Amino acid sequence: MSSTMSPASTNSLNSKRWHSMRHILERAGPFCKADFAPSPDNLEFLQNTCKILVIGAGGLGCELLKDLALMGFGDIHVIDMDTIELSNLNRQFLFRRNDIGSSKAECAANFINKRIPTCHVTPHCAKIQDFDESFYQQFHIIVCGLDSIVARRWINGMLISSLRYNEEDGSVDPSSITPMIDGGTEGFKGNARVILPGLTACIECTLDLFPPQVNYPLCTIANTPRLPEHCIEYVKIIQWDKENPFNCSLDGDDPQHIAWVYERALERATQYNITGVTYRLVQGVIKHIIPAVASTNAVIAAACATEVFKLATSCYDSMCNYMNFNDIDGIYTYTYAAEKSENCLACSNIPQVVNIEDPNTTTLEDLIKILCENPRFQMKQPGITTVIDGKNKTLYMSTVKSIEERTRANLTQSLGELGLKDGQQINVADQTSPNTIVLQLKYNGNEVEMD
Amino acid sequence: MIKLFSLKQQKKEGDQTGRSGAQQKKASAAQLRIQKDINELTLPKTCAMEFPDPDDLLNFKLIICPDEGFYKGGRFVFNFRVGPNYPHEAPKVKCETQVYHPNIDLEGNVCLNILREDWNPVLTISSIVYGLQYLFLEPNPEDPLNKEAADVLQTNRRLFEHNVSKAMRGNFVGETYFECCLK
Question: So, what pathway does this thing act in (chain B) (predicted)?
């Protein structure tokens, strides 16, 4: 037995509780990964060292926290910016009626911490964008139970920007990889996937797999409505702006707004002999709600938690790499290897180094000349932007007159004067490459002079 | 993937000491994509683009001055708002100029299929520019947003032409007053 464990600990390997886990983690088997070493250390790692981040404490998040905590993971963080609503309680089982209005992250953490003493959950009632790279770097694995594509793209971009590359062959340094397990559900459909940023297909590689938003033709909505949804969209898109009843934009969480839309939509539906406009449908259409199904969440979360377990312990190969699940009629699942896109804006965009002799004498115009003349680039009309102090900045773009006129003055400034530092990343779009590419400025010798 | 976690632990210890400089914030994928779209725009000579803030490539205006058709001589301004989910979602486009047009209503909503139901991530800002330009060359009475204008176009082309030029000069057409939008 591991000598580091205190015998009194509830985490004790001797506890009957971990009997089944130890069967898996302390015995070799024909399906184990090559680097798997059967040992009590595996469970010990899970309980005391491995640090997991769960993003989202909603339908999937509650399931994930429960699954991971019961599996033996001892250090879990959870992020969610939302508060608990009545309609969550049918499936988000870590919450009770008294919790309505409280933070999802905090209530979920309290519940798990009380119920499963071997696990400590740290809550963060915040947006994922509130944290920086140093926060995300502390985790071994990140699991997402999100309902937003924007949020998935953001965390995906964050994990890719933390990657380090081997300077000689451009390969990814494996120690800079934080695996991301992503679960998603919509009604009776769901998917689970394993993303090893830089190695396997990322969110941006497969962006077209996300179902498009349902959008009805505007003219149908305006003139020939046939569905209750058409009537609701009419009020939302056209009538709201026209009448501006509350002097603000439509807020799907404001019951007064929903009630107003409901009344007007009902009027319009009556006018066109359409039935089926209800308050709940109005809510659903305005907020793009697809009814959540508890069993789908359970299946997808279980698949995700299993992947976390496999990655953390190496006891079995990871799923490769995208599983679809659908139980509308019977049960259908299919797992396939989503391919990494060669033109992915996120994970194939490995910053290429541009050497600059002296940032104090090299102007932006000189840099553009380098991009056009250097045999490595041979660009035609590069448009260049960067991010300085967290803000986007357009350095030069010749193709749009109004931008050209206002960025022309930058051409004669030196890179130092423009605030570009050694190691600065610049984004360059040009007709010679299918995507905007990222270049990294490397100053040889001379530092930027301070004034 | 071999020994990912043992390496990972090493990295963490190294991280706290070695990796001090906070990495700069990177441009989002949406940002990189819009930069490509805009850098590659070849605008037809009837179109111009205005960026109120050249550092903000997500908000801009398109000005169309048709040189043929019903709307020749007019100047029409469209406002583009590109969201963080571009190109998964289409940009939001509104017409800021009041126009007597079957496919544009008086609030500036535009009925163009690729802005809504037929949007697709392979489309670009350029596709929308050409789509909008086409609306001025071939107003489509089959998919009306301004039903009155569509009815007139379908029943009496001459009257429609007359109404358009009246509206562009700054006049009432029926109950609605249109501001002058001649170049």
Answer: Protein modification; protein neddylation
Residues in chain B within 8 Å Cβ distance of A153: 28-30, 84-85
Which tokens in the block code for residue A203?
């969110």
ipTM of the predicted structure? 0.84
The nearest CA of chain A is from the CA of B36 a distance in Å of 5
* pLDDT 10s digits, B43-89: 999 999 999 999 999 999 999 999 999 999 999 999 999 999 999 99
Whether B59 has its CB under 8 Å from any CB of chain A: the answer is no
- CATH superfamily for A352-443 is Ubiquitin-like 2 activating enzyme e1b. Chain:  B, domain 3 (3.10.290.20)
Show which residues of A are catalytic. 219
Contacting residues of A for B103, CB less than 8 Å apart: 219
State the Cα–Cα distance between residues A368 and A256, nearest whole angstrom: 55
Closest residue in chain A to residue B10, using alpha carbons only: A175
Please check whether the domain covering A218-287 is classified as CATH 1.10.10.520: yes
**Distance (Å, whole) CA A168 – CA B171:** 69
Which segments of chain A belong to CATH 3.10.290.20?
352-443
- Asked if B109's CB is within 8 angstroms of A237's CB, the reply is yes
State the angle between helix axes of A255-271 and A279-286 in degrees (0 to 180), rounded to the nearest 10. Answer: 110
Percent of residues in chain B assigned helix, strand, coil, to nearest 5: 35, 15, 50
- On whether any CB of chain B is under 8 Å from the CB of A306, the answer is no
Q: How far is A62 from chain B (nearest CA, A)?
A: 26
* CATH number for the domain running over A7-187+293-319: 3.40.50.720
A42-80 per-position pLDDT tens digit: 999 999 999 999 999 999 999 999 999 999 999 999 999
Residues of chain A with CATH 3.40.50.720: 7-187+293-319
Map out the domains of chain B with their CATH numbers.
29-178 (3.10.110.10)
Whole-structure pTM value = 0.83
Rounded Cα distance, A204 and A319, in Å: 19
Catalytic residue numbers of B, as ranges: 111
Residue contacts between A and B (CB atoms, under 8 Å): 179
